Amino acid sequence: MADLRVCVIGTGAMGTDHIIRINSRMSGADVTAIVEPDSARAAEALKHAPGAKQFANISDAIASGQIDAALIATPGAFHEEVLMPIIAAGIPVLCEKPMTPDVASAVRVVEAEVKSGKKIIQVGFMRRFDEGYIQLQSEIAGAKLGELLALHCAHRNPSVPDWYGNEMLIADSVSHEIDIVRFLTGSPIISAEVKQLKRNKLAPERLNEPILVLLETESGVIATVEMNVSVQFGYQVITEAVFQKGVCEIGRSNGMTTWEAGRSSTAEHVSYLTRFARAYDDEIQAWINAAKIGQIGGPSAWDGYMSVAVVEAGLKSLKSGAKVSATYIAKPAFYN
Ligand code: ISE
Fold this sequence. Notes:
Blueprint: E1 4-9, H1 13-24, E2 29-35, H2 39-46, E3 53-55, H3 58-63, E4 69-72, H4 79-89, E5 93-96, H5 103-116, E6 121-124, H6 131-142, E7 148-156, H7 168-185, E8 189-196, E9 211-217, E10 222-228, E11 236-243, E12 247-250, E13 257-260, E14 263-266, H8 272-275, H9 277-291, H10 301-320, E15 324-325
Parallel strand pairs: 1-2, 1-4, 2-3, 4-5, 5-6, 7-10
Antiparallel strand pairs: 7-11, 8-9, 8-15, 9-10, 11-12, 13-14
């Protein structure tokens, strides 16, 4: 089968990383088009996709007949307007998380996909492809250590870019835990509660963090999430699972350990792009393989919606400090 001709929409750090990934490490696909309004960014991205055509918008790219699939890596606020023409055209799409910024738009996307009759949206929750999370999920499902009682998640970024605002703590960052907690426990999240931890004075003025988020599942598990985006030292995502008869932990650095001058040190990641490099590769390869046979190879638009619903509860709690329930529309049979 011919290689999938992929159009990447949004060529910031994530979009460019995906372009490099698809053109250098993935099989069965090529980036043949980009949509990027910023000409400097577009020029930079095109260096990694020589010969790719630049389009003004996704509709023009679709109308050209020169693309088979799309990968959306713009900020979440622009996803719906890009997704709608893609759904109408029925081409497979990998949409980075969050699927959309709020519940109303997430419902519109889900309804449009259901109406189209074809499951084409895969949402970019790459942690589901991380070896550690996959192992932990099977440990929980297998119940060798008994029932899962609690999860402790630490999500630490060294720093964040200028455009990262306070609400992004939940919408952009904790959204990963929101999805992965449901993936690990197999149970929907019923409430979110945000506590302010002692503020890190090294955090940019506009951010009030670190925060502690409590996510409660229908099955009765509480996941604590320390969300911290000014830790300075590196990038760390660690998850500890507490069972009746034991504890499992994933995500500690497996970088090189050096013994020198009376001390030992282990290299830590400094970015999610390296911490989850393998997960991104596996995610995108699974998407390509599935797209070629008209399927999705990972989390669906329904998973995207389920996470947006909890993000919305989390954002309310970020403002009020109160525990906020997450509620959901009925699951369309289409997603069963
Ligand atoms: C970013 O968008 C990501 O997806 C990273 O995985 C996360 O660690 C970071 O906080 C987000 O801003």
